Structure prediction request, 786 residues.
Amino acid sequence: MSSVQEQPVPVVFTGTRSELAGMLLRGYGLLIPTIGLYRFWLTTWKRRFYWANTEIDGDPLEYTGNAIQLLLGFLMALAVFVPLYGLFFFLSTQSSEAAIAGYSGVAVLLWFLMGYAIYRARDFRLSRTLWRGIRCDQGGSAWGYAWRRFFWSLLVLVTAGLAYPFMAASLWAYRYRHSWYGDRQFGFVGSWKQLARPFYLTYLVVVVIGAVGLGMGSAMGGLPVSGATPTVGGVVVLLIAAGLIGLMLLYYRSREISRMFSSVRLGEAALRVTVRARSLLGQYLLFGLALAGSYIVLAIGGLIVLGVVASGAFAGGAFDPQVFMQALQSSITVLLAIIFGYLLLLGAFSLMVELFLGLGFWRLVARGATITGLDSLRTVKARGEDTALAGEGLADALNVGAY
Amino acid sequence: MGIAGRFHDGQVAQVHVVGLEYEHAGATGTLVIRDEDGVELGRWPATDLYALHGRKDELRLGANGQPTGARVVVRGRVDVARVLATLPVLHAKRRQQAGREIRLAVTATVALAAVIGAYLYGVPLLASRIVGLVPPAWEQSLGETVARQMEASLGDSGGLEACDPDPDSLANRAIARFGAAVLEGSGSPFDLDIKVVKSEIPNAFALPGGQVFFFSALLDQAETQDEFAGVLAHEVGHVAHRHGMEQLISTAGTGALIGFILGDMTGISVAAGLGATIIDARFSRDAERQADAFAARAAERMDFNPAGLADLINRVGADDEFARALALLSTHPLTDDRKAALEILSQQRPTGLEPPFTATEWAAIRSMCGEPVAGTTPKTKSK
Prediction:
């Protein structure tokens, strides 16, 4: 076996932001005439883009799912949600104590179901991922995963977060140990020990900064307590503390991603991923700038439209609010303008999220990844067909599906 | 040597660097896949070929009758164009597939539009049917819960203190008698409980289960019996039609529908809120018209002019330009429209009826909350 001496092969990502932007804009446009149903097609196109542009050793991934499967899955998820809706409605008519108890019960149930949905959605995506003509797959039990996630999260809650590294490692291991590429099973060599140091360091720093920042900030009057206006100094201290906490969380996230992905094995092949905290920070800064920029453009566009609609209000270079309000109150076009403007704002936001956070994150992980021992995969054989017909179901309804 | 490509056989995770050749046979032909040494790896008839979605300048081919993962991949703009030119069948199949998906998307959209249409026109009917299935006792306890919550939320301003706590006073007896007379013959399972309570907000409303609240500020503004009786009869109409319950049911249904459209079953987004508001407001306006019609029918048995209720509402808060612009979002029809409709309904009122209250009773009702509260009147619309 020569795989030990083999050079690590970098993962390549070939997609561009403008290509994705064009696809998304077209998709948003089609969402309106289809009353939102086009979202299943949009998701499919998006995945095709991400998969097809992620190239491992010369061969890109292929996403073989289609929109109709997603649509069917969503319809099936409705079967779960309609009774839940009925339950919600019944609870809302009960006495307030019973309603609160009932709502909490439903919230806990939803939290549990989310685990099931996440696992099923991953199954759907993996089983529709093809590389070198061989399909991936996921075994295991979605209910088993849901229970694990549920009880771990209870434990994390009880221990004020201290149990989190154990939960993360356990769930990562469950996911990967039940994943397959053809007839070869993935492995996972990570453990909580790899997460412990960055996690408890972050935990400690966040607690200290939080306590100090809150103490100083409120001492300087940065909190709007009992109607007093917050002082500038206090607010600045609070903002600095919040910013530092954000940085620590990014640091931890980069460590968890790098170390957990680097623990993924496939036979003799090993994945190695390096994602730096500063790259993550860069994504968020870029996203903030892009969002601000797009909103400024929209605001200018909105003002121009208003100027045309209510030109009388701007007559003579001065702004007359009364004329302006009269022009606005004239008709139903105002309402349409409000709805259209709202849709534009919403569209700009989700476009920026996808372009800078979604694509940014995928690209960071892909470009930070190398694989050793790829040659050992040349003997992997295809397994039989068992792609379930249904889509991601609950995941669509619960909005947990990333990518 | 043909066009260069990559070949996966769909059985083993191998890459074969191959040359592709096309053998014409009449109108159709066969794609021949050979490795670098000229060994034939596969022959795919052109009619079995289909193209898959790949990235830009990359053509991925699969074929019926081959393992599902088997692929021939051609890269580069020039080579892709050459293959496509040789195999027009790929275009045809892709068009077919696209056509299928478009037809499906259109069908689904039309179906969804039909569901929304059916919902908008069907739910008022359906909700009134469903309401008939709700046990009156349940609705009553629900109304009591709502009343308790309301009193708790108004706790700072003294709760909902009755103007005249004695149920046997002249005013309360007259109001109860009027309410019972209005409700008579509607087959309602509820006993009315009409309370005139102290509040600076000019409003009146009916809760599920037969409770009706009339705020003192509205009573203060009533100039004639007609106005007071009209609003009260309108609220009794809400009780008789069980509108409170109906509204609860339709609101829940609207939430589910909007969630379906937006793919956000939690329904917490602003879009969901706005959509639900527009739809629910429509149902609410229908309910107001029904209650107005109910009041007009009651006025055929007693001598009061139901159009008075529109006068009172108009005095409390006339429709301004803004209300007209946002009429689509409003839970109430425009007052002018209501008055016009009520006047048409009250044209055929018989003559020679008894007025709802005697002069002494009306005087007692007018003074039951003491002197009108001085000061400005809040501009809140009444129900």
